[in-house]
Design a protein that fits this description.
about 240 residues; mainly alpha; single chain; globular
Length: about 240
C-alpha cells in the first residue's frame, strides 16, 4: 500500500479516534501541548510577558501561566497557536512525502522531552508526556520500521485532524447561549463564528495544500484509477 493510501486511512482513523472519549483525550493532548508551546514561544518573543509553565488536564485541555497586558498581543498569541499547529502539520507531511518516518518520531520525542524539562509543571501532564515518550521509544528501540512508519503517519494525520476539529469547536461554541466563546473571540470581541470560519478555511486550505502540493494526491489518484481500469480489463480478458 502506498504512503498516500495509508495517509487517507489514518486521517479517517484520527477522525474516528477523536470521537472516542478515552483515546480522544490521550491523543488530543499532543495537539494541545503543541498549541501551548507555541503560546509560550510567542510570549517570549514579545518580551512583554512571562510564560514558563504549561498545565495539561484530564479533559484534553491545557493552559499556560502568562501575563500579557496588550489585548492585541493576546489575540495574536492565540491565533499563532492555531496557525502554528497547521504549519507544523504541513511540515510533518512534507517529511512523510520523503519517507522520513524516523524524523517524525524523533521530533515528537524531542518535543516531549524539552517540554518536560522547561514547561510542563503539573503531575498529570508529566505522566502523560512520559507515557507518550515511552510509546514512541519502543519501536525505535526494537527498530521496527513498519511500526515506525504507521505511528509517524498516524501522528501527522492526528495533528491535521485536530486542527480542523478545533476550528469547528470555535464555530460550535459561538451558538451556545451560555456566553462561553472561544479565547480568540473573547479577547478580540469578534463573533466567534467569524473566527471559527476563518480558522476552518485556513485548516481546509492547509489540507488542500498538503494533498496537492506535498503529496501530489491528484497524481496518486490517477495512478489508482488506471490500476483499477487495468485490473477490470484483465478480468474481462481472462
Amino acid at each position: 500500500m502506498s504512503t498516500t493510501s495509508l495517509i487517507l486511512l489514518y486521517l479517517a482513523a484520527a477522525l474516528a479516534i477523536s470521537s472516542l472519549p478515552m483515546f480522544r483525550v490521550y491523543f488530543s493532548l499532543c495537539n494541545t501541548l503543541i498549541e501551548k508551546i507555541i503560546h509560550v514561544l510567542a510570549v517570549i518573543a514579545t518580551r512583554e510577558g512571562k510564560s514558563n509553565k504549561i498545565k495539561l488536564y484530564k479533559n484534553g485541555s491545557g493552559e499556560t501561566t502568562n501575563i500579557v497586558n496588550s489585548k492585541i498581543q493576546k489575540v495574536m498569541i492565540v491565533y499563532i497557536g492555531y496557525t502554528g499547529t497547521l504549519l507544523l502539520a504541513m511540515g510533518l507531511f512534507y517529511l512523510l512525502s520523503f519517507n522520513k518516518f524516523h524524523w517524525v518520531i524523533y521530533f515528537f520525542i524531542a518535543l516531549m522531552v524539552i517540554s518536560l524539562l522547561l514547561w510542563i509543571r503539573n503531575l498529570f501532564g508529566i505522566l502523560w508526556a512520559l507515557s507518550f515518550v515511552a510509546l514512541l521509544a519502543v519501536p525505535l528501540y526494537f527498530r521496527n520500521e513498519l511500526v515506525i512508519m504507521h505511528i509517524s503517519i498516524f501522528l501527522s494525520s492526528l495533528i491535521l485532524i485536530q486542527a480542523i476539529i478545533n476550528a469547528f469547536q470555535v464555530i460550535r461554541q459561538s451558538f451556545r447561549t451560555e456566553g462561553k466563546q472561544g479565547a480568540l473571540a473573547k479577547i478580540a470581541r469578534i463573533p466567534a463564528v467569524i473566527c471559527g470560519i476563518a480558522l476552518l478555511g485556513q485548516s481546509l486550505y492547509a489540507a488542500y495544500f498538503i494533498f496537492n502540493e506535498v503529496l501530489n494526491f491528484k497524481a496518486a489518484m490517477i495512478r489508482f484509477e488506471l490500476l483499477e481500469i487495468i485490473q477490470i480489463m484483465e478480468k474481462f480478458i481472462t
